[in-house]
Amino acid sequence: MDFLYSILENFNQKDFEEKVKIYQENLIKFNKIHNLTQIKNIEENIIDSIKILSFFDFSKVKNIADIGSGAGFPAIFLAFLLESNFYLFEPNPKKAAFLRTIKIECELSNLNIYKEKAQENKNNIKADVITSRALMDVKPLIQICKDLSSEKTTFILWKGSEIYKELEGLENKNYQIFESGFRKYCILSS
Of 73 and 38, which is predicted with more confidence? Predict the structure, then answer.
């Protein structure tokens, strides 16, 4: 918990805690009916979502696209803290409905939810940063995001131990990996 407070010292901690409480209440409600996620330790997953703030400076990031948003990890918790515009792509109708509820209940005007796959999006969004948490291998992820990305887009990926294998043969060798326990945070720049 000390780590969480060390990250939050540069943000509105009270506002963050209030939004987390709203998130947790809604997740419990939705999970009873729709079984959105099997995650039991929400606090651990919140820390996992925002730990990237220790490794990457988001201060100049205007647009962030999150691919396969699921129950909102990591994008929702980053949206609680950052002023960037967030574009969440979640094709599952129940998960997309949950994300919309969080947007409304937490008054997140910087959050946009798309109930579609990233490769289906035709809104001409160009993301400065694309995030994804353990959705798929790096190469196919980059491919499905080709219409969302530009030569300046940075990919920030929440991965496990297979990340080194996934990066083999990748043309772009401009990446950094930060490790915290089992998690590997991969920042892939152009």
Answer: 73
For 94-149, write each residue's pLDDT tens digit: 999 999 999 999 999 999 999 999 998 888 899 999 999 988 999 999 999 999 99
* Closest of 161, 160, 71, 87 to residue 124, by C-alpha: 87
Amino acid at 93: P
* Per-residue tokens: 189: 């720049």
